[in-house]
């Protein structure tokens, strides 16, 4: 048998050389899930090397524990830790809330808007920015214009920035291999409660007194505001999110407040 | 019969290279499946060459366990993608 081993020496050394090669591949992986798969490959090669060197028991243990158990446990651990939970209000709740706000403000504004700003679907950009200027902006004048326009297009205009916010958030988190999980809550109190009790990492709510959709100019106030309770997450999002329609704020939650 | 092992080693390098360069996680899983099967077959070949039953039994067990690990990992990753899209 030793004679046969010496004949197989070259290929044996080559096979043993695969072990540091695959270990280096594991170390160089950036994505944790990719690293897990490569770890499985490392386990398979390690089992092969151990078996070739005559340690059948070690090879069996490597295959059972090192490959199967370790990978499964790590996959579950990575999956539950690399996650950002974002609390929002339910979709049924957010849009009617905004429509109700529009409706409440509309009667007051109607007289003003008819006099000063003829309601027109195709308003030029200069007029819009004039309306957004802080001095001559009666609160909610743009909302009245929304009401008079096509209600369906207004609804779409309300929803679209939200989709954009989600897309932006996902893109920012994808760079760090984080996942975004959206958790819905029925009203604002339970949402704040969830943030306080650390059920979610951040909450996102429509900002108060904002304009919607196409009426937004570049210096308009943000449509949504998000409160992040983890400093590192806030720093990451602050660096990645440059879109004007989401305002981020850092809201640390201390255990004493509970 | 000693030329079998170097050839199997060269064949093993193909999925290893594939796992190294691919960005898609399912391609990596395919490479993992390929490598897990190939290594356990190499163990079986060596056991036949050496006429060693102990290594042979271990090779058979590793062949089945490698596939089980693959199934478990694939299931976790599949559920991960479902949540990510939804």
Description:
The complex is a heterodimer of chains A (about 260) and B (about 90). Chain A is about 60% helix and about 10% strand. Chain A is α/β, with parallel strands linked by helices and about 260 residues long. In chain A, helix 10 links the parallel strand 4 (about 225-230) and strand 5 (about 245-250). By secondary structure, chain B is mainly alpha-helical. Helices cover about 90% and strands about 0% of the residues of chain B. Chain B contains three helices and no strands. Chain B starts with a helix and ends with a helix. The interface of A and B includes residues 51 and 57 of A.
Q: What sequence of helices (H) and strands (E) makes up the elements of chain A?
A: HHHHEHHHHEHEEHE
Number of helices of chain B: 3
List low-confidence stretches of chain A. Answer: 100-156, 210-218
Cα-to-Cα separation, first versus last residue of chain A:
71 Å
> What share of the residues of chain B does DSSP label as strand, in percent?
under 5%
Helix content of chain A: 55-70%
- Give Rg of chain B in angstroms: 16 Å
Structural class of chain A: alpha/beta
Mean pLDDT across the residues of chain A is: 71
Oligomeric grouping of the chains = heterodimer
Low-confidence stretches of chain B: none
How does the overall form of chain B come out from the CA principal axes? flat
Kindly report the greatest chain-chain contact and the residue count on each side: A-B, 43 and 42 residues
């Amino acid at each position: 048998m030793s004679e046969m081993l010496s004949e197989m020496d070259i290929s044996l050394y080559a096979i043993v050389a695969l072990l540091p090669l695959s270990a280096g591949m594991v170390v160089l992986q950036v994505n944790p899930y990719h690293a897990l798969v490569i770890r499985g490959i490392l386990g398979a090669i390690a089992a092969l090397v151990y078996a070739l060197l005559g340690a059948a028991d070690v090879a069996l243990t490597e295959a059972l524990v090192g490959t199967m158990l370790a990978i499964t446990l790590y996959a579950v651990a990575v999956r539950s830790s690399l996650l950002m939970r974002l609390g929002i209000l339910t979709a049924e709740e957010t849009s009617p809330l905004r429509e109700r706000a529009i409706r409440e403000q509309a009667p007051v504004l109607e007289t003003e808007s008819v006099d000063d700003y003829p309601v027109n679907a195709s308003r030029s950009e200069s007029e819009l920015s004039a309306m957004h200027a802080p001095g001559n902006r009666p609160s909610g004048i743009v909302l009245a214009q929304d009401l008079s326009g096509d209600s369906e297009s207004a609804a779409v205009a309300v929803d679209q920035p939200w989709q954009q916010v989600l897309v932006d958030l996902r893109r920012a988190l994808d760079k760090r291999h984080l996942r975004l999980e959206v958790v819905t809550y029925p009203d604002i109190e339970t949402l704040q409660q969830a943030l306080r009790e650390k059920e979610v990492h951040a909450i996102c709510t429509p900002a108060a007194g904002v304009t919607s959709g196409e009426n937004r100019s570049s210096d308009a106030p943000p449509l949504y505001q998000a409160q992040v309770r983890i400093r590192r997450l806030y720093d990451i999002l602050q660096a990645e999110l440059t879109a004007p329609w989401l305002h981020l704020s850092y809201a640390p939650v201390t255990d004493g407040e509970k | 019969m000693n030329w079998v092992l170097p050839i199997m080693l060269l064949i093993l390098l193909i999925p290893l290279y594939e796992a190294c360069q691919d960005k898609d996680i399912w391609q990596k899983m395919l490479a993992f499946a390929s490598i897990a099967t190939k290594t356990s077959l190499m163990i079986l070949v060596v056991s036949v060459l050496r006429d060693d039953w102990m290594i042979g039994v271990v090779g058979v067990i590793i062949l089945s366990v490698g596939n089980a690990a693959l199934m478990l990992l694939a299931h976790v990753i599949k559920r991960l993608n479902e949540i990510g899209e939804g």
